[in-house]
Amino acid sequence: MRAVENALGITIPDNARIIRNLISGIQYVQDHVVHFYHLHALDWVDIVSALKADPTKTASIAQSLSDWPNASPGYFKTVQGKIKALVDSGQLGIFANGYWGHPAYKLPPEVNLLAVAHYLEALEWQRDVIRMHALLGAKNPHPQTYLVGGMSVPVDPNSQNALNAGSLAFMKSLAKKALDFVEKVYIPDLLAIASFYKEWAGIGGGVGNFISCGEFQKDNQSNTINCWLPAGFIRNRNLSKVEPIDHMKVTEDAAHAWYKYSDGDDKAKHPWMGETAPNYTGPKPPYEFLDTSKKYTWVKGIRYDGLATEVGPLSRMLIAYASEHKRIKEVTDGVLKKLQVGPEALFSTLGRTAARGIETLVTAEMLPIWIDELAGKMKGGDLRIHSGEKWDPSTWPKEAKGYGFHEAPRGFLCHWVVIKDGLVANYQCVVPGGWNSSPRDAKGQRGPYEEALINTPLADPNKPLEILRTIHSYDPCMACAIHVVDPQRRELVKVRAL
Amino acid sequence: MPKIAIDPITRIEGHMRVEAQVEGGKVKDAWVSGTMWRGIELIVKNRDPREVWAFLSRICGV
Predict the structure, then answer these.
(1) Using DSSP, how many helices (H) and how many strands (E) does chain B show?
(2) Region A440-448: what's the mean pLDDT?
(3) Contact residues, chain B, for A461 at CB < 8 Å
(4) What is the rounded CA–CA span in Å between residue A352 and residue A51?
(5) Does the interface ipTM go beyond 0.85?
(6) Residue B2 in contact with partner chain A when CB distance is under 8 A
(7) pLDDT grade, residue A486 (50/70/90)?
């Protein structure tokens, strides 16, 4: 949408900007917590070990970490009972096929029990707090109220059918609930678990180049130059210099990706010139291994200034930290101090997971401020939500090009559009999962995941838990929503060892 | 040199495979493969630019 607004030179009203910030903000908070507990924690937390815990000891650990109310021995005993019933049933359901008992799990049973209890609580919590999307976006996922030029959700304090004082008060209560859980459960758990895995501050560093386009706009331009989270590029772990970014430095090649370029697959093309012609040359499934000397993935070789570059919360927090963002510097230094490590520890699997927590906390703190900003506009009588001057295609130039930046929870996302005669002539999306999971490029440079896995220790190559830790620390999103799943291929994690 | 493949990686969004060469208990080299095709760029071609966001946001819910 920002790409189209940028191409057509549209500036959105304040209310639309604030609502977009709120939709993104609550999404960061919900998504990061879901990632931590439901997608990542079980790489560190042995759920079966929690059965051996003494619930009284877990309760005293919980009480020492924060004043979160669910912290009695009886509460943890009940949670333990739920796990026991599941394990005794012989059907672990979503917990089936984990590497339970793996030697790389280091937490005492009591901490495992604490984390499992919060895994379950986070499920309930996330369902509640994301109701802000129902109010502002009509649903989640995929909010429906976006509109080129603004938003389609009306604001009007005197209407029952618009965002009014009642909905703002409800959003405030959701924002409070969001921040409470992050402050009293997520961050204490993150620090407690991290303290048992400090060697992971030296593993999984990756390519060392980081980019963010900035997010949470302070003005209404169709780019993201003036934002609460700053834009920038950090080269080769150099925190003393944040370079400004230029979208023209983004390129994609198809040297190792299953696409055909009309002028040679090795060519690094800017997305305005991008092509999307699939050309699968891999083996016919089922197969043992891919021929990685040739093409081996559907993800193109995405590069910034010719370099493989990491995107996501770690990139955003490093760029904010190096740009002297006051609150982020304060929280990050606090986390580093608590874990007794220096800033270099951020370049790691543990650093990536910690940065996501830091970002969640500072974003949750902003939600009530943005709600107040919206309330202030409404109180002042500004009810504009859409700029319609350029809605009619007759107002558009014959040809227009645009780019739209967005920092999604998982990182830098950019769309490029070419509009000709009122229709989309070319569209290219370069998405966060693409940056991080990109393959080798024409020069043979590894992509971020690939580089981060080098030298990962494996206690047992048949149970590569440690690989999952680093891969999950990036929170992979392989572009999910549109595809067909063949039931024959829906296998559980399969490890083939030669 | 043992080579391992993890496919699919679970607890992520989408479909992904990792191949790794292991030597002396450590990963010596690694390759990451996205094992699904998106192609949404082709779906929005020749459409009205005012409506493409609704298609494009379906790439991913997060």
Answers:
(1) 2, 3
(2) 98
(3) 2, 4, 22, 25
(4) 29
(5) yes
(6) yes
(7) very low
Chain B CB contacts of A454 below 8 Å = 27-30
Q: Helices A349-379 and A165-181: crossing angle, nearest 10°? A: 160
Burial of A158 (0-12, 13-18, 19+ CB in 10 A): exposed
Q: How far apart, in whole angstroms, are the C-alpha atoms of residue A40 and residue A103?
A: 18
Dihedrals phi, psi of B3, to nearest 5 degrees: -115, 135
The reported pLDDT for the residue numbered A221 is: 85
The first and second tokens of residue A229, run together, are 């989270």
Q: What is the pLDDT of residue A489?
A: 31
**Cα–Cα distance for residue pair B42/B62, rounded to 1 Å:** 21
Residue B60 confidence (pLDDT): 73
Q: What share of chain A in percent tops pLDDT 70?
A: 96
Q: What whole-number distance in Å separates Cα of residue A413 and Cα of residue A377?
A: 29
**Which A residues 20-49 touch B at CB under 8 Å?**
27, 31, 38-40, 42
Block residue for tokens 């992904």:
B16
E strand intervals along A359-437: 399-408, 411-420, 423-430
Where do the structural domains in chain B lie, given as residue ranges? 3-59
**Nearest Cα residue to B48 out of A208, A329, A421, A185:** A421
Query: Residue B53 and residue A148: Cβ atoms within 8 Å?
Result: yes
Which residues, numbered 378 to 417 in chain A, qualify as contacts with chain B under a Cβ-Cβ cut-off of 8 Å?
A: 391, 393, 408-410, 415, 417
Q: List the beta strands (DSSP E) in A221-352.
A: 227-234, 250-253, 301-304
pLDDT band at B1 (very low <50, low <70, confident <90, very high): low
> How many CA atoms within 13 Å lie on the side-chain side of A266?
5
Distances from the Cα of A38 to the Cαs of A94, A112, A116, A118, A221, in angstroms?
10, 14, 10, 10, 36
Name every chain A residue with its beta carbon within 8 A of the beta carbon of B24: none
Rounded to an integer, the average pLDDT of A153-173 is 96
Return the half-sphere exposure (C-beta side, CA atoms, 13 A cut-off) of residue A348: 20
Residues paired with residue A227 on neighbouring β-strands, in sequence order:
A217
The SS3 of residue A401 is strand
pLDDT band for position A483 (cuts 50, 70, 90): very low
A195/A290 Cα distance (integer angstroms): 38
Give CB contacts under 8 A, 24+ apart, made by A74-79. Answer: A75/A117, A76/A113, A76/A114, A76/A117, A79/A113, A79/A116, A79/A117, A79/A120
3-state secondary structure at position A239 = coil
Half-sphere exposure of A44 (CA within 13 A, CB side): 30
Taking the CB of residue A376, how many other CB atoms lie within 10 A of it? 12
Integer Cα distance of B53 and B57 in angstroms: 6
Q: How many Cβ atoms from other residues are within 10 Å of residue A78's Cβ?
A: 13
pLDDT score at B61: 58
**A359: left (phi > 0), else alpha (psi -120 to 50), else beta?**
alpha
In tens, the pLDDT along A28-63 reads 999 999 999 999 999 999 999 999 999 999 999 999
